[in-house]
Amino acid sequence: MSKVREIAQLGAKVLRLRAQEVQDIDAPEMQEVIGDLFISLASTSGVGLAAPQISASWRMLIIASRPSVRYPYAPKMEPTLMINPSFESLSEVREKDWEGCLSIPGIRAKVPRYKDIKVHYTNELGKAETQNLSGFVARVFQHEYDHLDGLVYLDRVENNKDIISESEFLKLIENR
Predict the structure, then answer these.
(1) What distance in Å separates the CA atoms of residue 83 and residue 25, rounded to the nearest whole number?
(2) How far is CA 26 from CA 22, 35, 54, 123, in A?
(3) pLDDT digit string (tens) for 65-79?
């Protein structure tokens, strides 16, 4: 039975490990992690969640863009599970924009990310998928993908002046 898991916080060792590839999606442990990922993300105001964030060091993530207090301008999409994902940039164009993370509450930072990417992954049925992502959804994917490699978004910040508190970020978006 799926359960909400605690979100690992910055400093937890699991967030700095390279996650293991999933070999057998149908294995009971993998099915449990998949269910817990969906339930755990749904219990937050996040737009994505990687397995390491629920202390499961496996290469799987969910992106689920939706408008919320944290991301009022996010486009709506169905939650999408991606197992053993990879991606390639479709151009060298990168944009800097604000990111936050459930594992690093209270802070936002401007992070450069590719604007347009092509993602390859296995879905929950074991079928290979390819999808082009752009803008905010591409950013969410790259953010979650970094978790699979033991990185957090603060590792990608180019200038410490691009880091602000969540409360200051909320003031910024109120004035948009």
Answers:
(1) 8
(2) 10, 12, 19, 12
(3) 998 878 888 999 999
Question: Which one, of 79, 67, 84, lies nearest residue 136 by Cα?
Answer: 67
Q: What helix, strand, coil percent values describe the chain, rounded to 5?
A: 30, 30, 40
**Helix/strand/coil for 151:** coil
State in Å, rounded, how far the first CA of the chain is from the last one: 42
Q: What angle do CA 120, 126, 127 make, to 5 degrees?
A: 55
Does the CA dihedral 168-169-173-176 come out positive or negative? positive
What is d(CA 96, CA 111) in angstroms, rounded to the nearest whole number?
5
Q: Which residues are the active-site residues?
A: 144
pLDDT score recorded for residue 21: 98
Is residue 104 over pLDDT 80?
A: yes
Domains of the chain: 13-174 (3.90.45.10)
